[in-house]
Design goal:
The chain has 180 residues and is α/β, with parallel strands linked by helices. It is built from 4 helices and 12 strands, in the order ααβαβββββββαββββ. It has one domain: NagB/RpiA/CoA transferase-like (Rossmann fold, 3-Layer(aba) Sandwich), CATH 3.40.50. Helices cover 21% and strands 25% of the residues. The strands form 3 sheets. Strands 3-2-1-6-9-11-12 form a 7-stranded mixed beta sheet, with helices on both faces. It has a 3-stranded mixed beta sheet with strand order 8-7-10, with no helix packed on it. The chain is globular, with a radius of gyration of 15 Å. The C terminus is likely disordered.
Length: 180
């Protein structure tokens, strides 16, 4: 995918995401800091800051396969590259998992039931399975990354909503975003 097409598709997806009632109600959102081949979700962070939402990004503990949401104020300042080119907050204020209203979830591929294949480390499956997380999980992918069916393992956690540059698929009706 060319950089121009990737940008155009990313902007279409972000517009669709920011038009959802879940985004409108969310007070705290955990984004991801995209790798070069992933959807660029920077407009979501920028709009979130404009609307005075808390924006967090995951800081990874590689040996324990754990993600900690860290509040960020910029997509560049205080962000550092780590293992395999993954960017994460160098430091910052941890955000309680239970206070997150929305988590954006990348993957290599999703199916139409919102199952996903990530990069194999299980960070998001463990995070979304946490009993403390009560927000909405939103799978984010280009339409080309969606297939009809994927194999599913017992530990796999599907997302609640799948958003692409062409469509939105609600797997679960999500009305559990708390009012803050």
């Amino acid at each position: 995918m060319s950089p121009v097409i990737r940008h155009t598709k990313s902007m279409a997806l972000c517009k669709r995401l920011m038009g959802t009632s879940e985004f409108a109600r969310a007070k705290a959102i955990m984004i991801y800091l995209p790798l070069p081949d992933e959807v660029d979700i920077s407009p979501v962070a920028l709009r979130g800051w404009q609307e005075e939402k808390i924006i967090a990004a995951p800081k990874l503990t590689w040996d324990k396969r754990h993600m900690l949401p860290i509040r960020i104020q910029s997509l560049e300042i205080g962000i550092t590259p780590t293992r395999a080119g993954v960017r994460e907050p160098a430091e910052g204020e941890p955000i309680a998992i239970e206070s997150l209203d929305m988590v954006l979830v990348p993957a290599l591929v999703f199916d139409t039931k919102s199952n996903r294949i990530g990069r194999g480390a299980g960070f998001y499956d463990r995070f979304l399975a946490s009993p403390e997380f009560r927000g909405v999980s939103v799978g984010v992918a280009f339409e080309e990354q969606v297939v009809d069916k994927l194999p599913v393992e017992p530990h796999d956690v599907p997302v609640d909503i799948l958003i692409t540059d062409e469509r939105l698929i609600r797997i679960k009706t999500v009305d559990n975003i708390h009012a803050g």
